[in-house]
Design a protein that fits this description.
This protein is of the alpha/beta class and 273 residues long. It contains ten helices and twelve strands. Keywords: Phosphoprotein, Transcription, Transcription regulation.
């Protein structure tokens, strides 16, 4: 059945069954709600682990890889966050579903490179969790190009996007970016720095827009400059969005999602026209 997420995500690709997903949660209410929602929307059957011992057993009992884990921070037998540490140590992509939250905890979670975190105290918590799961399981259909002359910046953005399960290509300058775009017409989003030595972000965007429209490629510009007018100049050059550095993970992921959601909606309307 078609799915419309809280943030505007639309998905009508049918069943997502087949991916092995663990839910480490001791609340009967939430395990029932999550199980029912994922089965209804995506035909997903999840494995429920109500304590740390069951989580360890679930991992040990099968050689089938765990595609995604949803974990409470505090689990019986792991009251100090050991369950989350266990999943992270195993390099299992994890969404944290928690009722305990504060700013310091948020920083700790982000530092662990989790996929996402959902707060239980939100009335739409289960719906938000379902959307986060759907995004992770379907993000591989999106190919994103990062353009930045800084190796550090490229690595940072690349790791963020790969954490969310996107396919990622990188270019160290505008010339290389044009080559990659020509060879990979499936790229739907480009994130480009403004200040680059050969072709700056404005000129790169202008050249791309001469042959590739926003219905095929969304472009997000980024810059650490304090010049607030850069965003206006970039948008007038044909960009779709602009983010000033430093930005936080949640903001960056939201803007990426919004642009890709818009791209899919435009493409859907063009196909049905």
């Amino acid at each position: 059945m078609p799915f419309l997420g809280i943030s505007g995500m639309q998905y009508s690709g049918g069943s997502l069954a087949g991916a092995r997903i663990l839910l480490a949660e001791d609340s009967n209410v939430f395990t029932s709600m999550i199980s029912a929602k994922l089965k209804e929307l995506f035909d997903i059957d999840i494995e429920i682990c109500r304590n740390f011992e069951e989580l360890q057993f679930a991992y040990d009992k099968s050689s089938e890889p765990i595609r995604l884990a949803i974990s409470n921070i505090n689990l019986p037998g792991a009251e100090k966050g050991e369950a989350l540490e266990y999943l992270i140590d195993l390099s299992i992509p994890t969404i944290v579903f928690t009722g305990t939250f504060h700013e310091g905890m948020r920083d700790e979670l982000i530092a662990k490179d989790i996929v996402d975190y959902i707060l239980k105290d939100n009335i739409f918590a289960v719906d938000l969790l379902a959307e986060s799961i759907c995004r992770f399981l379907t993000n591989h259909r999106h190919h994103v190009l990062i353009v930045d002359d800084s190796a550090t910046a490229r690595a940072l953005l690349s790791s963020r996007l790969k954490r969310y399960n996107f396919r990622v290509s990188v270019a160290e300058n505008g010339t290389k970016a044009l080559e990659i775009l020509k060879a990979n017409r499936d790229i739907g989003l480009m994130v480009t720095d403004y200040n680059m030595p050969d072709i700056d972000g404005f000129e790169l965007t202008r050249r791309i827009r001469a042959s590739i429209g926003s219905h095929e490629l969304r472009i997000i510009g980024v810059s650490s400059s304090t010049n607030r007018l850069l965003s206006a100049r970039f948008l007038k050059a044909g960009g779709n969005d602009f983010i000033l550095r430093p930005f936080i993970d949640e903001e960056f992921y939201c803007r990426v999602n919004q642009n890709l959601d818009t791209l899919l909606q435009i493409q859907s309307m063009r196909l049905s026209a």
